[in-house]
Design brief:
Layout lengths: L8 E9 L2 E7 L14 E8 L1 H5 L9 E8 L4 E7 L5 E2 L4 E2 L3 E7 L7 H13 L4 E6 L6 H14 L3 E3 L8 H8 L4 E5 L6 H8 L25 E6 L2 E5 L20 H9 L24 H13 L10
Parallel strand pairs: 3-5, 8-9, 8-11, 9-10, 11-13
Antiparallel strand pairs: 1-2, 1-4, 2-3, 4-5, 6-7, 12-13
Length: 314
């Protein structure tokens, strides 16, 4: 006699709560009448099977999982399987990200080119195309904003300027978010990430704080990662703000994280195939690029912490 097949339901991890994982499942996936179907989505507080630990499978927000052993009354369950990830970012830890939106304020705190570059490099290293959201545009003149937008275009990035206070650019941004399955909002503290989510989903009323007048930067309000439904099957993640992302890259691949350098290498090649675009003979990279000093400074730091290399000719 065959045993009854255990029912499993597919869902997405939307948050951590203490030592539990919160998994969201569409109510229409349930054939049982024992669960209260009062909303389109059902959230279950889950533990995980020990076999996942033995297999070395980690679970983070954004992971697609299968749950079983559901306690319908208390809305609890156990995670038994994890699907392979399509993408992953380490800080903050979010799986299956399809879009990284880097929020940078133009004022309060003022736009910082090096800081913005660090966030962009984090996205590039994860191989996820980023967009830049320029917030608080009501605080600067239109000409100054245009200069900033053109600067970012030279870097190789599109930007969407917005003002939550004046409701400028919000509809365009929402349309962009709804083209992606899972968008992560990243950026320094105090640039308006949580305020943006509160505007998109007013019922949340997430706590926000003002920029410190003494430090001229934002204070942390988001303490953990959580996914929110913004409609059209799209999710958005608010993340804890941090002001100086660590650059993690291998030396030879560092230049590939800069679109303006990649663009030049499409049309011509350096003499040495492992050229670092420093002072090597036959290097074709334009050293007058705005971000070249940033590239060079961080490259030198990486080189100083590694063994010397030998350039190889093509």
């Amino acid at each position: 006699m065959y045993k009854n097949k255990i029912k499993k339901y597919r869902g997405i991890v939307v948050a951590y709560k203490a030592n539990f994982l919160v998994v969201e499942i569409n109510h229409h996936d349930f054939n049982d009448d024992l669960i209260d179907k009062i909303s389109e989505k059902i959230r279950l507080l889950c533990t995980r099977r020990s076999k996942l630990d033995y297999l070395g499978l980690f679970i983070d927000v954004g992971d697609i999982v299968f749950v079983e052993a559901i306690d319908y009354k208390n809305k609890r369950a156990v995670i038994s399987e994890v699907e392979p990830r399509k993408s992953f970012i380490k800080r903050p830890s979010v799986a299956n990200v399809s879009l990284i939106s880097i929020c940078i304020s133009v004022e309060e705190p003022i736009f910082d080119s090096n800081q913005t570059s660090r966030f962009l490099i984090t996205a590039e290293a994860a191989k996820i195309q980023p967009i830049i959201i320029l917030t608080k545009i009501d605080l600067i003149k239109k000409n100054d904003l245009n200069v900033l937008i053109n600067k970012l275009k030279l870097w190789g990035y599109d930007s969407i300027p917005i003002s939550i206070k004046k409701l400028q650019g919000i509809e365009l941004l929402i349309d962009r978010f709804k083209q992606a399955k899972l968008t992560v909002l990243a950026g320094p503290s105090g640039v308006g990430k949580t305020s943006l989510i509160n505007h998109l989903i007013p019922s949340l009323s997430l706590p926000t704080s003002s920029v410190s007048k003494k430090l001229k930067r934002g204070m942390h309000t988001t303490r953990h990662v959580e996914l929110f439904d913004i409609g059209n099957g799209s999710l958005i993640a608010d993340t804890p703000g941090f002001n100086c992302p660590e650059i993690v890259s291998n030396i030879l691949g560092f230049s590939e994280l800069f679109p303006e350098i990649r663009e030049q290498l499409i049309h011509s090649k350096c003499k040495f195939r492992n050229c670092l675009h420093r002072d090597e003979p036959g290097c074709v990279i334009n050293k007058d690029l705005e971000r070249y000093p940033f590239y060079r400074e961080n490259l030198e730091e990486m080189i100083n912490s590694h063994l010397p290399y030998q350039a190889d000719s093509i």
